[in-house]
Amino acid sequence: MISHQSELSGVWCPSVTPFDGQDRIDFSALNQHFARLTASGIDALLLMGSIGEFASLNQQERLSLLREARSMSPLPMVANVSSTCFADMIQLAEQADRSGYDAVMVLPPYYFAQTRKQLLSYYHELDKRLPGKWLAYNFPARIGCDLDPALVAELAAELPKFIGIKDTVDCLSHNRLMTEETKKVRADFAVLSGYDEYLLPNLLAGGAGVICGLNNLVPELFAAAMRAWQREDLVALTQIQQRIGRLMAIYTLGDDFVSAIKTSVSRRFGYMTPDSRNIGGGLDEEQCQAVDRLFAEESQQ
């Protein structure tokens, strides 16, 4: 098997952000969530990713999350500081650095699609201003532009603080090419897939791992996948890949996958509400029952 030299390899959980009944961040619930994730055997936590609803949080909420969450787990922790306001992003990154985060993650500028020249200029300027290590977050389906493998490799060759990328592209070839191109210039560069069922294909292609929403629900399954990978257990990996594939059905329930994940956490573990700021995305009773059946079947595996 491939021995990864990346600082932040393995399976990461992009954590949900719990809210209480008054639409406030529920830090008690987040603490319980992090305790469960830490005990599961996964490798790292991502705060305020897409599934963490960063786009619906105001600046003060995000700063508060950065200050409070770091002490909730000893695991390596990365904070998504993406924003349409450059000054806000730098303020968040500086707070993350003071609070002891291992790195920050940054989307390309969004709303206006960016040219290649703009993307290169943006990340060079960002690198000058960020106080520590950082990862890029590629999500073209949401952002309107793609951080293609050649562009990322060019940045990786020039910017030592740029240590990895979350490549949320539903295409195995994109993940593979990202790894191939960046490995030409940096052995330590981490390519992490943003799709749950791409963990094993990404590892097989030489990538570093995965950052995926199902880790909010079944982190033990993904931790087991990494252990099976390390001991070269093909039978276990095959079984785990099939289980992950079945659980991908969670993303098809309802209108909003964030609400589906939070509802599932709420129903299975009870320490957080299913509330999301994605208005109208809540699951109805039939969909909730489908969630229960899905995980009842999973528990029998």
Summarize the structure in words.
By secondary structure, the chain is of the alpha/beta class. The protein has one domain: Aldolase class I (TIM Barrel). The protein contains twelve helices and eight strands. An eight-stranded parallel barrel has the order 1-2-3-4-5-6-7-8, surrounded by six helices. Helix 8 links the parallel strand 7 and strand 8 (209-211). Helix 2 packs parallel to helix 3 and helix 6 (149-158) runs parallel beside helix 7 (172-183). The longest helix is centred in the last third of the chain and has 15 residues, at 285-299. The protein is globular, with a radius of gyration of 18 Å.
Termini Cα gap: 26 Å
Question: The CATH topology, please?
Answer: TIM Barrel
- The average pLDDT score comes to 95
Task: Name the poorly predicted regions.
Answer: none
Instruction: Give the percentage of residues in beta strands.
Output: 5-15%
Tally of domains: 1
Spatial shape: globular
